Amino acid sequence: MLKILSAPNKILARSVQPVTEINDKIRKLVTDMEETLAAQNDPPGVGLAGPQVGKNLAIFIIKPSEKAKTKVFINPKILKYEMRQDPSSKKRKSESVRLEGCLSIPRIWGAVERANKILLEYQDLTLPTASVKRGWFQGLEAVIIQHEMDHLCGVLFTQRVIEQNRLLYEEKNGELEKIDY
């Protein structure tokens, strides 16, 4: 099992390098990341990016629920964001403002506004190195992917919370307490 790095580790603040070859080393890394993610239960994790386990590589996995199959994303790029139109307003508004946490920032939570639907280009373990897939993701999967994409750019969710002028909370004794910053 891999060690999950905690903020303020410098690796978490760096942009990653692309995966140049999908080989046995990358397959082993994915297997180790899956085992590491599965072992997280306080709280459970739904995604894990390369930098979180000390690997400066453009790779992450997601597992939105305990019964979901793990999805692997290598060299991902978000091609399009779609916000859902709010029928009561002329403004475009995201449907997804959710309380997020991060395995690299234990016991800290904050609401982040994310696009409800994204078009992603990526590779996975089933493709030859030069081939790519494109797919739309929405709802919780889209939120998790955007969170993990931020990790690949050296951005933590707490930065998004602060940028959006939202509140951060610390979990203490099972309760959320507002953090003044």
Q: How does this model look, in words?
A:
The chain is globular and about 50 Å long. The chain is built from three helices and eleven strands; from the N terminus they run H-E-E-E-E-E-E-E-E-E-H-H-E-E. The N and C termini lie far apart (35 Å). The strands form three sheets. The chain has a five-stranded antiparallel β-sheet. It has a four-stranded antiparallel β-sheet with strand order 6-7-10-11. It has 181 residues and is α+β, with helices and mostly antiparallel strands. The protein has helices at 24-38, 139-152, 157-163; strands at 47-49, 59-62, 71-82, 84-85, 92-93, 96-102, 105-114, 117-123, 133-138, 168-172, 175-179.
Amount of helix: 10-25%
CATH fold category name: Peptide Deformylase
What's the overall geometry?
globular
Q: Based on the structure, what is the oligomeric state of the protein chains?
A: single chain
Average of the residue pLDDT scores: 92
Brief account:
It is built from 3 helices and 11 strands, in the order αβββββββββααββ. It has 181 residues and is an alpha+beta fold.
